Amino acid sequence: MNILATIPFPLQVATVLFLGLMYGSFANVCIHRLPKKESVVSPRSHCPSCNTQIAAWDNIPVFSYLLLKGKCRQCATSISIIYPIIEAVTALLILAGFIKFGVSWKFVIFCFVGPALVIITAIDIEHKVIPDIITLPGTIFGLVAGSYLVGFKDSAFGLFVGGGTFLLISEIYYRIRGNVGMGGGDIKFIAAAGALLGWQQVFLIIFLSAFMGSVVGVAGLAKKRLSALSQIPFGPFLAGGTLVAYFSGERLIHMYIMSVTGGY
Ligand SMILES: [Zn+2]
């Protein structure tokens, strides 16, 4: 008998949200420590201003920020609103995954993939880099999880097609422009995403991220907020494309095939 069916749905949602907030809290630790190559396990969190160790009851995701009105209890220095936003976004992503996939391996895999996408987005926006410490284990994870999701052959093919396509684009760009347009982190990311979702969906991710990137890029250039497209980190768009593909990739590809073949 399915134990889950005996638990009322609101309680299921509350449990998943709680789990998501915990992941979000850990995501914050990763976002701030991975670029500095610090351990994400120890030491406990400190206030970046007065260095006081943050007590457990002041470290509750989102709620502590609200209770403390966004200030450190000791030194009253403002805490960045990015922290509770990261926690809330992660929790909502996990909840969306639960509602979409139910209790399944696809949901379990998403509990790793979702927070990783949040971490990559935040780090790439701030530091313009996607750390190897996420993408390299991510490639192994992608192959293992991808073997379950799409089969080992499609997964391995996705790794090489994704990584190879970006390597080629990066090489062509370098030959034409003489500078590096696409970072190594982007190449490793798309290889990992290709391994996770297979070669068919890696093209969908590339298409979606290039589309979103060019919309934002053109808007930014038009408002003169950006002087060159190369200033925009590509990681957030890759993460967005991967997210869309993870949730709806099969349906989007099916719709595309239908529209090309006219349903035959
Ligand atoms: Zn402080």
Folded structure, characterized:
- 69% of the residues lie in helices and 0% in strands.
- The chain has helices at residues 9-33, 63-67, 82-101, 105-127, 132-149, 152-177, 184-197, 199-222, 235-261.
- The model has no long low-confidence stretch (mean pLDDT 91).
- It folds into 2 domains: 1-102, no CATH class; 104-264, no CATH class.
- The chain has 9 helices and no strands.
- It has 264 residues and is mainly alpha-helical.
- Bound molecules: zinc ion.
- Zinc ion (ZN) is lined by residues 47, 49-50, 52, 72, 74-75, 77.
Question: Nutshell version of this structure?
Answer:
Helix content is 69%, strand content 0%. The chain has 264 residues and is mostly helical.
List the helices and strands and how they pair.
Layout: H1 9-33, H2 63-67, H3 82-101, H4 105-127, H5 132-149, H6 152-177, H7 184-197, H8 199-222, H9 235-261
Helix pairs in contact: 1-3, 1-4, 3-4, 4-9, 5-6, 5-7, 6-7, 6-8, 7-8, 7-9, 8-9
The chain binds zinc ion.
Zinc ion (ZN) binds next to loops.
Q: Into which percentage range does the β-strand content fall?
A: under 5%
SS-based structural class?
Answer: mainly alpha
Number of E-type strands: 0
Q: Please give the count of helices.
A: 9
Q: Give the fraction of residues assigned to helices.
A: 55-70%
Order of helices and strands: HHHHHHHHH
Q: Which residue ranges are poorly predicted, with pLDDT under 50 across at least 5 consecutive positions?
A: none
Structural Rg: 20 Å
**Rough outline:** globular
Overall mean pLDDT: 91
Give the biggest sheet. none
Distinct small molecules bound, one entry per kind: zinc ion
How many domains would you count in the coordinates?
2
Distance between the termini: 42 Å
